[in-house]
Known about the structure:
The complex is a heterodimer of chains A (319) and B (414). By secondary structure, chain A is mainly α. In chain A, 78% of the residues lie in helices and 3% in strands. Chain A has 15 helices and 4 strands. A two-stranded antiparallel sheet of chain A has the order 1-4. The longest helix of chain A has 27 residues, at 24-50. The two termini of chain A are 18 Å apart. Chain B is α/β, with parallel strands linked by helices. Chain B is built from 14 helices and 15 strands. At the A-B interface, helix 1, helix 2, helix 5, strand 4 and helix 12 of A face helix 1, strand 3, helix 3 and helix 4 of B.
Amino acid sequence: MKGQSIALLALGAGLVVFPFVASDYLMVLALRVLMYSLIVLSFSLLVSQLGLVSLLQTTFAGLGGYAVAILAVLYGWSLPATLFASVGLVLATALLFGLVSLRASGIGFMMLSIALGQMVWALSFQWIDLTKGMDGITGVAAPIVAGLELGDSRQMYLVAGTIVVAAFAASHVLVSSHFGLLLRGIQDNEPRMRALAHPVLRARLVLFLIASLFAGIGGILLTWETRVITPVSLDLSRAVWVLTAAVVGGTGSLLGVPLGVILMVTLEAVLSQYTDRHLMIFGAVLVFSILLLPNGIAAFAADLWARRHGPTRATVAQK
Amino acid sequence: MRRYLRFRTLGLFCAAAFMITPTQAQEELRVGVIGNLSGVFASSGTTMVNGVRMAVDEAGGKAGNLPIRLFAVDDEGNPELAVTRLKAMDTRDKVDVIVGPVSGNIGMAAVDWAKESGVPVVVAYSAPEDITMRKAVKNVVRAGWSGAQPMFAFGEYVAKKGWKRIVMVGQDYVFPYNQIGGFLKTFCRNGGEEVIKVWHPLNTTDFSSILAVLPQADAIMYNGAGGDAVAFYKQLEEFGLRKTKPLLGGSNFFAVGSLPAMGKGTVGGLSALQYSDSLDTPQFKKFRDAYVKKYNEPPMATAEHGYVAMNMVINAVQTVGGKDRAKLIEQLRKTNMPDAPRGPVRLDDYGNPIQNIYINEVREVGGKLLNVAIAKIENVSQFGPYDAKTYLADPPDSRDFPPGKCSDPYYKKK
């Protein structure tokens, strides 16, 4: 337990020190890692707590991104109004989609999530008056929040980093709470939880809303960072990217999320620099990592730790 | 001991962070090339890079006395990723200038990035007009075209052919709007009567519902490209409509890459572009022969555009005698290239080329289907027959603007 606290402290210190020692280039990658961590966290929470494979999480990120872009660029709304409406749109859509899809589980749920995601994707390039079609919306200015210029990578890091740490802390609390226990109970034996008069659908819906909120915020930050949102962000391939990051990192613990995203972003950046065949190598690396580390990097690291220091709470909980 | 280990790990991380930071740049011209190098549209990006490499090789690997170093990256057709890669080329590779991209939406995303970073960008093939119009910034110039530009010439050509009613089937998004927009603005002022517009969503594979009720007209135009275009063409043949009417295309409809899939029935199809697969000039032949020798295939338009874009950079560096950013941008904007393979290229005040437009006809040359130039219209700008102010006073082209009927009061104005 003591070792874990020290590790967490070191991690925290690393996050604080990072913007002071990192080059501008590493800042670019770090921001990408932070923002995608929110989206992958959103996916990972649903898998680990409810066993739901939701390919809708990039859709919520894209909705958040489209909402801030459309409201700020096309309608010139102020920042608070834009943010309020964007987050509201993400939550309202999540509520609607959740009510439609959360009665299903397993393959059924996954298919519903794909179908709903494809609907939004089709809308994004066919509702041209609003979304500008394939060209998407460009020129989204990064706003100034509480005196911090989000156009500057280090100030953006401060804001995004704080949000990410808060989201992970909140997820940790949620997972270890009674509510988390209820969720895992539903995952293990839904009929029994129903028989015990637990509000199964409502519990699922609450987690779905929380997860979608994380994804939506990730998408908003990503749009501010890249200044652009296009239908590509809602493409199924982005959802598969998120799924891969989550699986490679490991959905058994929250730590798997940043590990998976760091690996994916680094691979993308390094491989694309040296070869046009990067997508093939990328695929091969992923196949091997899934074959050799079926529970993800996080579980592998926890195993190593356990061998040297005795089991941690995380590994015990997994077994 | 354990604590020591942890500090060591932290130290290693920091060291790694510093190591990745590039060492002080040597005196060389660092050129970032961005294009779609993977996926369905990979050929457009790779041929552009081929053109860039050929320009560098011809210059002996040097611009002035600066050795050229290329950093080619893949945008994967994803604007969000493209911006990240552009940032990486700026911060990691410390590039002096960017050449590319090819796709429209990535060009639009790149302009926003360029505006903030200040890095000079020579857009190779990406054609949204706002790159050099409503969003024009000083450090972005174009080696290619705007969507409406070749269609200004085409509209006039078609009207003068005596085809007065055109039925157009087009992909429902901004680029085809811009193409038919340019077409209509000259078509209607040269005796045309009407363009009936039928829009279909992107990624349509079945056109039978459209073809079954296709209105009567003097000619059929398909305003789009890629897989949709091939599917449309195949079904046009199946419906027996190919031979009954002249077939016109948007600028990318009869792309050399799609022609083999469409087949020999395309012979006679007409379209317009600032490039042609076959021109009878020494500059073009020299370029084509050198390209075929190097890459063993005829150069696509994207290859020539990459070649011209890179040469714009080399010429500017040579004239400036260095790579000072402000001077380089100044010089790039003054680009005047009388001997480009496609013909003379000089930039307007907004940074877009004023150039020849060719009316191309699909012909079979030596067993290959190619777009052969049958007419040339000189000195066409992105504003067509208008000056910048008049053109920009109109709203941007959309589904319904400019109007399809030439009797509309809009055409009476100017």
